[in-house]
């Protein structure tokens, strides 16, 4: 039988479609408790300039500190949160937390604060008729200026009709920046750039993996390099900023710089960290800047 009872009481039942429906339902119940009980925490991964390694932004990444299972990654519970609709209150929590923290950094570090703070937004949130109002409230309650907030959306989330399109244009009009996350992995990346008001393109990690490999062939033969180059050129032509995601080595950072990327994110540069660790990094950066003056 396909039934198994997990240690923490998760019931896994894989139906004919191979979909662990019950596991998701159980997870949903646990998630509700997690939300109410303060088990969700937000880490921030620095986004850095590739030349001088200055921090120019952060991306908020949620973690679930489960009482018995330890830290659970969003890849494991975001799908369940989307399915159960809990992504709406979860996303609202992350958004409010991100705005509050970014406003705090701004008050504390002024010109040395991260210029932008990004939160991931799922399709279900974009469909929620209250989403724009939630964003407006998060900004107003925190005092964070709109232009400091970035909302990251994926192609698949955006490719869903009128309501979503109206929401995105509303957010853009408010001065919020929209980033196309995991760019290049969807099916209509290029047409999307025309159809929605993106300000930032995040080159997906899958094109950064292997971008540095020199196989002795002309550069264009390295397909990832070719895509990475095309994306940055297109972005510049359209007046969009870029972020290269998932940089894991100095070699990758160097090649991406040569290709025209000025900003990147990845374990080689900085891992996702607590707000306190980001503050320590900002304090260090501030003292370096002060020494320069
Ligand atoms: P994402 O938005 O593309 O975020 C980047 C992911 O890549 C993060 O994984 C980050 O920790 C990881 N990463 C960064 N640099 C490197 C690297 O150099 N190497 C490798 N191997 N990985 C790297 P994480 O935190 O596990 O999040 C996974 C995904 O879950 C995110 O992908 C995003 O789609 C989703 N997610 C995370 N937090 C939220 C949230 O608050 N709301 C929603 N809707 N989705 C979220
Ligand atoms: Mg993201
Ligand atoms: Mg991404
Ligand atoms: Mg990604």
Please, how many helices?
12
Structural class: alpha/beta
Rg measurement, Å: 20 Å
Low-confidence stretches: 1-19
Oligomer designation: single chain
Helix percent band: 40-55%
Number of strands: 11
The N- to C-terminal Cα distance equals 70 Å
Mean pLDDT: 88
Catalogue the ligands. Answer: ligand C2E, magnesium ion
Order of helices and strands: EEHEEEHHEHHEHHEHEHHEHEH
What gross morphology would you assign? Answer: globular
Strand content: 15-25%
Q: Can you summarize the main beta sheet?
A: 9 strands, mixed
Protein name: Bifunctional diguanylate cyclase/phosphodiesterase
Organism: Dactylosporangium maewongense
Domain EAL: 24-286
Fold topology:
Layout: E1 3-5, E2 11-13, H1 21-36, E3 40-49, E4 55-66, E5 70-72, H2 74-84, H3 87-109, E6 116-120, H4 123-127, H5 131-142, E7 149-154, H6 155-158, H7 161-174, E8 177-183, H8 189-195, E9 200-203, H9 205-208, H10 223-238, E10 241-244, H11 250-259, E11 263-264, H12 275-292
Parallel strand pairs: 4-6, 6-7, 7-8, 8-9, 9-10
Antiparallel strand pairs: 1-2, 3-4, 3-11, 4-5
Helix pairs in contact: 1-2, 3-5
The protein binds ligand C2E and magnesium ion (3 copies).
One magnesium ion binds at residues 182, 204-205, 245.
Domain EAL: 24-286
Protein name: Bifunctional diguanylate cyclase/phosphodiesterase
Keywords: Membrane, Transmembrane, Transmembrane helix
């Amino acid at each position: 039988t396909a039934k198994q009872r997990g240690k923490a009481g998760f019931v896994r039942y894989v139906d004919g479609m191979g979909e662990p429906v019950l596991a998701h339902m159980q997870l949903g119940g646990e998630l509700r408790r997690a939300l109410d009980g303060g088990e969700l925490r937000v880490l921030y991964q620095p986004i850095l300039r590739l030349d001088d390694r200055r921090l120019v932004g952060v991306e908020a990444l949620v973690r679930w500190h489960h009482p018995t299972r330890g830290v659970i990654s969003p890849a494991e519970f975001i799908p369940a949160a989307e399915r159960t609709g809990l992504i709406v209150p979860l996303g609202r929590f992350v958004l409010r937390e991100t705005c509050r923290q970014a406003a705090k950094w701004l008050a504390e570090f002024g010109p040395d604060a991260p210029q932008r703070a990004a939160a991931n937004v799922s399709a279900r949130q974009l469909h929620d008729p209250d989403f724009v109002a939630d964003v407006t409230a998060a900004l107003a309650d925190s005092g964070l200026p709109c232009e400091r907030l970035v909302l990251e959306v994926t192609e698949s989330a955006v490719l869903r009709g009128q309501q979503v399109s109206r929401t995105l244009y509303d957010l853009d009009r408010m001065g919020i920046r929209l980033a196309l996350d995991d760019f290049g992995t969807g099916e209509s990346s290029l047409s999307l750039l025309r159809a929605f008001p993106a300000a930032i393109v995040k080159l997906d990690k899958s094109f950064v993996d292997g971008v540095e490999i020199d196989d002795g062939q002309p550069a264009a033969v390295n397909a990832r390099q070719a895509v990475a180059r095309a994306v940055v050129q297109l972005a510049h032509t359209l007046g969009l900023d870029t972020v290269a995601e998932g940089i894991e080595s100095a070699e990758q950072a160097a090649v991406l710089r040569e290709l025209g990327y000025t900003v990147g994110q990845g374990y080689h540069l900085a891992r996702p960290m607590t707000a306190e660790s980001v503050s320590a990094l900002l304090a260090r950066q501030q003292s370096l800047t002060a020494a320069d003056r």
